[in-house]
C-alpha cells in the first residue's frame, strides 16, 4: 500500500525559505500553475473527521489532468493515495460525481518543487490562503506515518525559519477564507 506522508507550514518570509533551501542544495523547479477541484464522499461535511473518509481530486497542470483518490489514515496529512492521468477533465468530473462524490472547493496555486534525499519539497502560493511549504515522503508497507511526520518536521525545524505548522489541508484552508 502506497501512502503519502506530509507536513505543511505557512511561510511568512518566502525569500528566507528559498535561501535556506538553496543553502541545503535544494533548487526549486520553475513555477507550475495547478487548478484543483476537491471532492468528498456524499454524507461527509466540513467539521467532521477526515480519518477513513475517501476524498478525490481532479488537477490540471500544464495541460495534463490528474485524478487522485486519498484516504487519511493517521491524520489528514498521512494518506493512502492512488493517482492516474486522465484525458478529459469534464468527463472525469462527471464520473467522480457519478461515483458518489460531490465537489467541495477549488484550489488554485502556483507550485515549485524539488527533492532532497527521500523527501519532496513543494513551495506553494495558494490563492486566498497564502504561501506554504509542504515536505512529503512516499512510504510503502506499514512504516509508521506519525514517525515519518516527526522526521519531516525535524527537517523543517532544521531550516531555522519562522514557519507556522498547520494540520489543515488546502481545501480546508481555502474554504476557511
TrEMBL record:
Transmembrane segments: none annotated. It holds the Pfam family CYTH. This is CYTH domain-containing protein. SUPFAM superfamilies: CYTH-like phosphatases. Residues 2-176 form the CYTH domain. CDD domains: CYTH-like_AC_IV-like.
